[in-house]
Amino acid sequence: MYPERPAGLAFGGDYNPEQWPREVLEEDAALMREAGVNLVSLGMFSWALMEPAEGRYDFGWLDEILDRLHAAGVAVDLATPTAAPPAWFVAAHPDVLPVTREGVRIGFGGRQSACSSAPAFREATARLVRALGEHYRDHPAVAMWHVHNEYGAPLGECYCEHSVAAWRGWLRATYQDISALNDAWGTTFWGQTYTDWPQIDAPRFNHTVVNPAQRLDYARFSDGQHREHYALQRDILRELTPHLPVTTNFAGTVNCKSTDLWQWARELDVVANDHYLRAEQPDNHIDLAMSADLARSVAGGAPWMLMEHSAGAVNWQPRNLAKRPGEMRRNSLAHVARGSDSVLFFQWRASRFGAEKFHSGLVPHAGTDSGQWREVVRLGADLRRLAGVRGSRVRAEVALVWDWESYWALELDWRPSVDLSFRERMDAFYEALWREHVTVDFVHPSADISGYRVVVAPSAYLLTEAGAKNLHRYVEAGGHLLVSYFSGIVDEHDAIHPGPHPGALRELLGLSVEEFHPLRQDETVPLTAEPGTEDLRGRIWSERVRPAGAVTVRAFAAGPDAGHPAFTRHDLGAGTAWYLSTAPTGGRALRDLLGQVLDRAGVSRPRGLPEHLELVRRGRHVFLINHGDEPVTVEGVTGVSVFDGERCDGRVTVAAGAVTVVEETPRPEGERA
Ligand code: GAL
């Protein structure tokens, strides 16, 4: 259920009027009108004002704000303020303060300072949310509910006494029988056999490595506790206002390590995502695109909401670079291109005090006589012109397998190499595809993947039998699967699949691995050359592959596996399974290998476009985002340019740093190109 209001694309952001005097609020309404703001998120951190003492609710100040916004034509995404429990509550219930893995109980003075499992927190949450919901159920400004803020960030796991009690309950419900838990966790190792549930603690800090299966389950349990805290609120709100959608904002899909967003997305009426650029990272718009594609994917392809990003600098990175002219516009429209029906920001007005006073806002400290404000006003106008995009879908022919459980498991302690990283491989493949102008979806290993021409598994270390079977069926039915090293190694308990690696994928890939040979830091090994391609080298990983049906496309030319396969192909049923046992490095190395797979699978991609021209199709619209310093002419686009109304007949030029969106129209019959 996507919010009905505002019509068209939503534009606005977090609004914290409690930080400002009345005259500023009056100015806000006028400025919001000037910029075309039509949705604000309100109340996110206002528990202390909404409930100044236990059971005494005060919504008078908020009523005034909602009324003013409604009069100004601005809809409200009303937040439950549970990410900032008030001082009186924490003083009365100090046991709600979360405890870190190292055993440190955090103090009051920041935010997210209550444990999702703590009974007092859950009870106070339920009372407050009911009071809030009852008070605003009929207010015409309220268009949707926004529960909490960024669950799992920054503290995904809590180790307090309430968490441990809930954990034992979770274990009983999951395993029922203690011997089943002992088997799943492999507790015969290091003599950890449990004979009764109360013996089991959280996997807290230890001077050596803690049982990895126990840690993996704790990650699942902890994520589930946050989801329960969310669902408690959602259910109350749904009961009171069944017509209003409920969401919570993800802390940036690709960076939400502690939250399994496949599971979260099922609980939301509309997926909402936050994204902040890593300012100093070159080409950081690729990370943005990845975050947006993952948001769309967890939303099942449905339109999602960009709930927060920044108009300019953030304040929490080592060096907080301001956005360059045009960058905010490119960022915003890239999210829309990839399926967002909103462009919302943290926050409306840059704060004067508190921890985030150096964070940008739509209204900067410099005021409205500023380049940034002019860009904000322009963006508002652009988004009005793009209203027709709302609800339309992005289609992808290629999918990347992304599984949070695999992410958690791979990055536990004592792996064959510290260079094995879920994100490192995922980013490498995503970037290669982005530079090939290929739009991708992300998929869970057990999802229906039959519609994709190519599926890539960059880092599927943990793969269940069901996931492996799904990939097998996909290939047999004609799919093209590319698997990268250290995939299919363990099951859901981080136990190695029986037999040689990669146990879950041996048959599908037509090979086995006799021994891992991780490379030294900065070491690279050459692969055999193929005429007409650049010299390829691998880094991070090498291993002794023994083909059993697969053919060698490239071999290692030196290093611990000289003469043995590095890149293989296995024709199986109507499809093909490829395997890559190193991290290609340098220039176009990975793109060249990937290109072979895409070509064989018939994935078309625009030729002759410079890399930095981002091209994405959404419904009838084609978004052309020029991240470079030179104009780019794109061929093969016919329609009307949305921002200036110009017709493009087969070609369109996008100025340096600019964004052009063309609503494609079929050429009238009989007319020649
Ligand atoms: C987000 C958070 C916002 C704000 C923002 C600053 O993670 O949800 O409340 O703190 O970061 O970049």
The percent of residues in helical segments reads 25-40%
Distance from N terminus to C terminus (CA atoms, Å) equals 42 Å
Q: Nearest-angstrom radius of gyration?
A: 26 Å
Approximate strand percentage: 15-25%
Strand order of the largest sheet: 5-4-3-2-1-9-8-7-6
User: How many strands, what sense, and barrel or not for the largest sheet?
Assistant: 9 strands, parallel
* Ligand list: beta-D-galactopyranose
Number of strands: 26
Arithmetic mean pLDDT = 96
> Which descriptor suits the 3D outline?
globular
With helices defined by DSSP (H or I, 4 residues minimum), what is the helix count? 17
User: Which spans have pLDDT < 50 for at least 5 consecutive residues?
Assistant: none
Structural class, by secondary structure, is alpha/beta
Account of the 3D structure:
This protein is α/β, with parallel strands linked by helices and 673 residues long. Helices cover 30% and strands 20% of the residues. The chain has a 9-stranded parallel beta sheet, covered by helices on one side. Strands 11-10-12-13-20-19-18 form a 7-stranded mixed beta sheet, sandwiched between helices. Strand 6 (249-250), helix 9 and strand 7 (272-274) form a beta-alpha-beta unit. Helix 5 (119-136) runs parallel beside helix 8 and helix 10 (285-298) crosses helix 14. Beta-D-galactopyranose is lined by residues 149-150, 251, 274, 276, 308, 314, 346, 356, 359.
